[in-house]
Amino acid sequence: MDEQRYEIQMERDIIAKMRDGVVLRADVFRPTAAGRFPVIMQRTPYNKANYNANGAPFAIRAAARGYVVILQDVRGRFASDGDWYPFQHEVDDGYDTVEWAAALPYSNGKVGMFGWSYLGVTQMSAALAQPPHLVSLFPVVTACDYYDEWTYRGGAFQQFFNESWASFRLAPDTLDRRVKKSANAMNRVWDLPLGNFSLFETGSVRDLAPYFFHWLEHPAYDGYWKQWSLNGRFGKISVPCYHVGGWYDIFLNGTLRNYTGVKAHGGTAAARNGQRLMIGPWYHDSASFREGKAGEVSFAPEGCSNEEDEMLRWFDYTLKGMVSGLAEKPVRIFVMGENVWREEEDWPLRRARSTRFHLHSGGSANSLHGDGSLSDSAPEAESPDAFVYDPANPVRTQGGGNCCDHDHLAPGVFDQRPVENRADVLVYSTLPLDSDMEVTGPVTAELFVSSSAVDTDFTAKLVDVHPDGFARNLADGILRLRFRNSFERAEPLVPGEIYKIKIDLWATSNLFRQGHRIRLEIASSNFPRYDRNLNTGADLLTGERMLRASQTVYHDRDHPSALILPIVPR
Fold it and tell me: Which residues are marked as active site?
């Protein structure tokens, strides 16, 4: 597969002019041989030169196999002109770039796109515009909705991701461009007094990353977010896509929704029938793919993967018409616990049975702090469980789908016992299982709750408890209760009133082994992954005053709180 077929050449900063005259620049790797070749392209905000620093091994490998590989800086980033704003220009610029690439003299007119994370945004956005020469996509770990899966989740602000992405991945290039622009402006030499000289004209956080404040100014799912969302627009996507994600990826739900959305509503039969999905035991980093490791747990060697191999097989199939060793079934998932790959006909699995595990009091002296149980028997007369949530002392994030500063907030699997020992975390567990039990599919917590606050959060976490006590996190979710009925409209709580809520934990695939226990954790914070709810209903931009909230979870005949799991018969 890796045998070199062509000598290659590389050209830097090739110009593509967009419809409004803005110039974008790309590096091109291509065979030196005469003829025309299919194009595979990525559009990135993270500096195309970074991909060349170590010899651009994938671009060289693909070009040697007979592809034209194009790496382009998106508008307003690094070598490209224009002004940067996340999501804003990717539809039109994506269309224009695909058609530009198709018309290159060494292109055969067939264009595929590939890439991770925001590079998946550029792919899906381009597909919405339906460029005639776009043939297929390979989006890895990307989102479907840039409100509920990217910037917010369950109505809560994804604070650590948003701050780290804006600060060390996006703002530095904006600052660098402003410094260079100011330093090169000759009219600055006339400024007096000389002591007022500055390196750049403006450099406030609001100026360098205005979008961050716009995100805070739009805490509900309004027109600002809807203009970019794929929701309701899958009918505009008319090409096959191979979606790749990880069970611990921050954008897992987007990967799943993109697959199911285009499969059900794609604009052509080729699109509807041509969707593929692969989910492994990974978080948002290529090292996790290569090493098969997520946090404290290694899934190697079975969980190791080089997505570039699969990518080349995909483009051999869609752009060259080759039979290239792709899996026969469209879905490939990694079942954790058993640590095996399995092919499936579709997602979610049709044979999975939605099963309710009801919350019960534990009966011990510590039961008010969550020493509870889970079982399939419905509750009768039981007392509720209560805790106090103090935003000044929130539950700290312990693994999960974190991004994008792993040195300060590590993603993946970590023992949850330090979290579970807190008085503000409720814990409900099954008895040790008599036999293996597979959970594969969407996971939901349906709870009956009340609060002393006018707004607050509830979190839920699914955990696999090993016989030695190691509590392995699998899936989690959060709900900001002001958005309990709709993300489009905030509704304050009536303190003390009981509300039925649903917390979406997204999905997992895990074999709970015999002797293990299924556990549900309930709390009201997961910080700094999500912002702290101050319990006042205050505006995100200006809120400072914090209040403690008395939280209650009910589980009785009239309020049958439950963890809902997709159980796969074995």
Answer: 117, 249, 284
